[in-house]
What does this fold into?
Amino acid sequence: MAKVRVAVIGAGSISDMHLQSYQQNERTEIRAVVDFNEERAREKAQKYEAEAYYSKLEDVFADEQVDAVSICTWNNTHADIAIAALRAGKHVLLEKPLSTTVESALLIEEAVKESGKLLQVGFVRRYDTNAQLLKQFIDAGELGEIYYAKASCLRRLGNPGGWFADKDRSGGGPLIDLGVHVIDLCWYLMGCPKVTTVSGNTYNKLGNRANVKNLSFYKAADYDPSQNTVEDMANALIRFENGASLFVDVSYTLHAKKDELAVKLYGDKGGAEVEPELSIIAEKHDTILNVSPQMDKLSFDFKRGFQNEIDHFIACILGEKETLSPVQDGVEMMKILCGIYESAATGREIVFTR
It folds into this structure.
């Protein structure tokens, strides 16, 4: 069987998860690594045994030996690169978020329709084993109608700096970086209902707190403590057309006792917690039960999630499966994220009309 030949665009830290996963997929061949920093592209190409490396996008799009690309670049470049890749006849796995504006997200959606190629949005949490197990319970009606969900991803100290802290390149801070994952996970498990209203707040109170000692955190390759134009913290209430609602709060920095990751869903027959550990709350024989599945890992397995995502992407290209995260979902997520930022900026609720 001919292998799917892939190129990874953007050789930053997240590219390793893509490259490792492609390397582990027997039906994939890593054709090229692309980065404007040619030396970094060359190093990654050597590390993952890619045949070629490029510093110009035109070169990878012109490469007829590339069937598909993973886009792992700054958020503000997603739309232009994805559209160019689709027009060049490449399938696309695009890291979240889809883009930084609703307008550019819609342009990507149009390019997908015109090209007939696959675009899978990198909502990696959807592909996690725990999420897929819980989805089976939900689809079987075990939780009934899910009418409320709550998600938190709070860091005490965790502004990565670099492009993450540059609003022009990232589109925002913890909301668009971390919030997108937990919002999407809840929304996906709720059945992806259409958003009707969003009310949100963002705060710039603490800065990146580069002065703090004795507590380490991840720093971007281009970390610069003097640069920070994104929010510290955001929260929002999101309402959907089926009457369900979702509350979310996220932070890069917060005067909290400890970091917090929590994802909870509530239905009229049962409930569930995805984080910090998968648990299902049921009611049987007039008794409330806390059900803990016997699994290898009850929280998100970062490495396995990416492997599942890449494996699914390749299976979709080969016509064996349908993507779990189509471009349409990426567009809807951009409406939610941009709606929260707009609500915070204007001090009013944002209403979406259909």
Remarks:
- The longest strand covers residues 146-154.
- The CA atoms of residues 218 and 232 lie 16 Å apart.
- The chain has a mean pLDDT of 97.
- The chain is about 35% helix and 25% strand.
